[in-house]
Design goal:
Structural class: alpha+beta
Largest sheet: 9 strands, mixed
Strand content: 15-25%
Strand order of the largest sheet: 4-3-5-6-11-7-8-9-10
Number of helices: 10
Shape: elongated
Radius of gyration: 20 Å
């Protein structure tokens, strides 16, 4: 359990906690944190679940993978795969998601793995989202009608691209084309590629090799801006729309409970 001990200590440091501070967050004693970090005892299942939930990292990764090379809390490298987790919170300890503006999307291909670039993005709270790392992206063009140019998609990060569901829509980040939104079909077993298909029949589907894929984000929800004029679509307005959507859906969810 030496890897787990190192990971507990390192992740505590990334969050800026003392052993006592982390112990208070997880409702355990400081001596327990100390014994786990020094590998003098093995964490209980209850502690592992609480620690995993707090840091938004799967237990199997905590136990099996050395995370000590990560120097920033916006993502962690696991082999050749990036595992993102929503660790940014507001004053109420609610998770925040980043909004990639139209302007920022132009540099996303260069900055998607740069913690400083991600940190500078606007952030919003959408409490109705399911568990997972989400980000909001702008849509360009009309290849995915009825969603028009200027709309926004909130999507969940896909940790393993082999597990995508064919026919679902995704934000796709590729080495050559940057950011695009398409319906994706898994062709890994056939020819190590994905088929990207627009919903607008005026556009042709095309294949992208797996090696070209940098990130995949599965569609969660969207703001379709077709009822708004172009001059209304400032980032502040988009954020207000998403926040309004969150309030409406949260109220609906509570009314159904």
């Amino acid at each position: 359990m030496k890897i787990l001990a190192k990971n507990i200590k390192h992740l505590r440091g990334l969050k800026g906690f003392s052993q006592e501070g982390l112990a208070e967050e997880l409702s355990v004693t400081r001596s327990r944190i100390s014994s786990y970090e020094e590998n003098r005892s093995s964490p209980t299942i209850e502690f592992l679940i609480a620690f995993s939930d707090y840091f938004r990292i799967p237990i199997d990764i905590l136990v099996k993978k050395d995370l000590t090379k990560a120097q920033d809390v916006s993502f962690i490298e696991v082999g050749d795969k990036r595992v993102l987790f929503p660790i940014t919170v507001d004053s109420d300890n609610e998770n925040l998601i980043e909004v990639v503006s139209v302007k920022a999307s132009a540099g996303y291909l260069l900055g998607y793995d740069d913690p400083e670039f991600i940190e500078q993005l606007e952030k919003i709270k959408l409490p109705f989202l399911p568990t997972g790392k989400h980000r909001a992206f702008p849509i360009k063009g009309d290849s995915m009608l009825p969603m028009k140019d200027g709309s926004y998609v909130v999507a969940e990060f896909v940790e393993d691209i082999k597990n995508i569901k064919s026919g679902d829509s995704y934000i796709v980040i590729t080495k050559n084309d940057g950011l695009t939104y398409k319906r994706v079909y898994n062709q890994i077993e056939e020819n190590e590629s994905f088929l990207l298909k627009p919903d607008n029949p005026s556009y042709q589907p095309y294949e992208v090799p797996v090696s070209e894929i940098l990130e995949l984000w599965r569609f969660t929800c969207s703001i379709n801006t077709q009822e708004y004029e172009e001059h209304e679509l400032k980032l502040s307005s988009i954020i207000q729309m998403f926040n309004g959507l969150g309030v409406e859906l949260e109220a609906l969810k509570k009314s159904l409970i």
